[in-house]
Amino acid sequence: MEAALQVFIGGVFTGAVYAVAAVGLTLIFRVGRVVNLAHGSFFALGAYIAYQITFLGLPALLGAAPAAAMGLLLGSAVDRTVVRPLRRETLTVATVLLGLAILAEEGVALVWGISPHSVPLRLPTLLVGRIVLGVEQATAAGIAALCLGAVGLYLRTKPGLGMRAAVADPDIAAMAGIDVERLQTATF
């Protein structure tokens, strides 16, 4: 029973991280009407940037900001240079994004190799009864909950309502003065 509970708790923590990635993918699809097949690759590239920073001897938390910035810049660049010019050709966009995903995967393999890597966090574990809870897992789940809550709150603000309007009908949102292209780039 304890082993099952341990696996369940680990699954909940891992699922929270996947939920953040899924929310990003869903926002991209709903706002930009694009299936971003490279989304996971962008997520992984950010993780490898964080790994590289810790590999250089810097603290792990210091790697989070550059990793997030890289994801932001890469997503914006891909939207402006690839997705925006081809937005009406959904199959072409999906194919190009799949190609970018493969390119990113091969680039990661070239730079970091094919063996898995992890960011070494020197955090203690918590023992609750006979259940072991990793502080890094709990922290990741907490950050995921904060991110999901922030998205929920954002969608109730004026820019968030603009995003929801762009999802409902981009043409009418544009006529109402909402910069739909900027919103699409921001979500990508």
From TrEMBL:
It is a multi-pass membrane protein. The chain crosses the membrane at residues 7-29, 49-78, 90-114, 134-155. This is Branched-chain amino acid ABC transporter permease. Belongs to the binding-protein-dependent transport system permease family. LivHM subfamily. GO terms for biological process: amino acid transport. InterPro entries: ABC_transp_permease, BCAA_transport_permease. It holds the Pfam family BPD_transp_2. One of its GO terms (molecular function) is transmembrane transporter activity. It is found in: Cell membrane. The keyword Membrane applies. Keywords: Amino-acid transport, Cell membrane, Membrane, Transmembrane, Transmembrane helix, Transport. One of its GO terms (cellular component) is plasma membrane.
